[in-house]
């Protein structure tokens, strides 16, 4: 009996010891998990603090440097003061200005062509594809004299031209396609422009002659010219000697420019 009690006591002692060890181990594990959780929270708090500091630094830099490069919604870099590339290019295209040539003189560029007149008749001649010019000593630009067989020119006159003196002197053409559309508002000299152009008879009444200072010999010898120029008004100081001498309108002053009709001039 005593032996049995001794065995039972030993067994109970062993069980108690095992339970105690398990409880201690569980407590250690729980403590480790708590410590790990606390460490994790510390790490997260540290990251949040770093992020907040970074945001503060970035905000400070933006205030200190307002032109600093940013990203747009498409991820493209551009400064706050600088528009996107396509807008900038559009603005440049809108502000294009006609460049003044550096050369002192160039020749006309020509090619052979065939046109049809109002009746359907074919007319052979040459076309100026690029207008030639000369530069005077005082820096003014004039149109080079046009070859007699030219029947077509560019419809746009360069804006830096101010002289058309003798440009169509002795032209053989009755009609020169393109000149009817020229902006002549800056032209100051039309001296002898169509002198001895015996076949010329084209409507150029829409030309702006408000800046012209010299029309001497302008239609002198232009025997076929019979167009109405009554819509033109020149300056009172314009030089007009022999303006229409021997032309098709010499005796028809109703077709003359307004302020020349009552002027006594040598026609």
Short description:
With 267 residues, the protein is of the alpha/beta class. The protein contains 2 helices and 9 strands, in the order αββαβββββββ.
Write up what this structure looks like.
- The protein has 267 residues and is an alpha/beta fold.
- It folds into 2 domains: 2-94, no CATH class; 105-267, no CATH class.
- It contains 2 helices and 9 strands; from the N terminus they run αββαβββββββ.
- The chain has helices at 2-64, 85-94, and strands at residues 70-71, 77-78, 105-106, 109-116, 122-130, 133-135, 141-143, 150-152, 161-163.
- The strands form 3 sheets. Strands 3-6-7-9 form a 4-stranded mixed sheet, with no helix packed on it. A 3-stranded mixed sheet has the order 4-5-8, with no helix packed on it.
- A hairpin with a 5-residue loop joins β6 and β7.
- It is globular, with a radius of gyration of 47 Å.
- The termini are far apart.
- The relative contact order is 0.06.
- It comes from Mycoplasma feriruminatoris.
- Residues 28-91 are annotated as: Disordered.
């Amino acid at each position: 009996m005593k032996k049995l009690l001794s065995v039972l006591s030993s067994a109970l002692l062993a069980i108690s010891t095992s339970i105690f060890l398990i409880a201690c181990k569980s407590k250690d594990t729980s403590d480790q998990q708590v410590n790990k959780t606390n460490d994790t929270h510390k790490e997260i708090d540290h990251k949040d603090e770093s992020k907040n500091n970074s945001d503060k630094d970035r905000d400070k830099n933006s205030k200190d440097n307002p032109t600093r490069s940013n990203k747009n919604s498409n991820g493209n870099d551009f400064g706050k003061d600088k528009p996107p590339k396509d807008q900038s290019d559009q603005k440049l295209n809108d502000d294009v200005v006609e460049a003044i040539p550096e050369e002192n003189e160039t020749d006309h560029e020509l090619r052979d062509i065939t046109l049809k007149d109002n009746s359907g008749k074919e007319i052979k001649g040459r076309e100026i594809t690029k207008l030639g010019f000369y530069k005077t000593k005082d820096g003014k630009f004039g149109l080079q004299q046009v070859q007699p067989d030219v029947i077509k020119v560019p419809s746009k006159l360069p804006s830096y031209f101010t002289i058309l003196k003798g440009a169509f002197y002795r032209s053989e053409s009755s009609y020169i396609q393109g000149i009817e559309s020229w902006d002549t508002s800056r032209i100051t000299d039309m001296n002898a422009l169509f002198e001895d152009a015996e076949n010329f008879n084209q409507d150029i009444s829409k030309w702006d002659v408000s800046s012209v200072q010299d029309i001497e010999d302008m239609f002198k010898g232009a025997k076929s010219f019979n167009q109405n120029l009554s819509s033109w008004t020149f300056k009172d100081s314009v030089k007009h000697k022999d303006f229409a001498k021997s032309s098709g309108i010499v005796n028809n002053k109703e077709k003359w420019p307004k302020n020349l009709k009552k002027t006594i001039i040598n026609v």
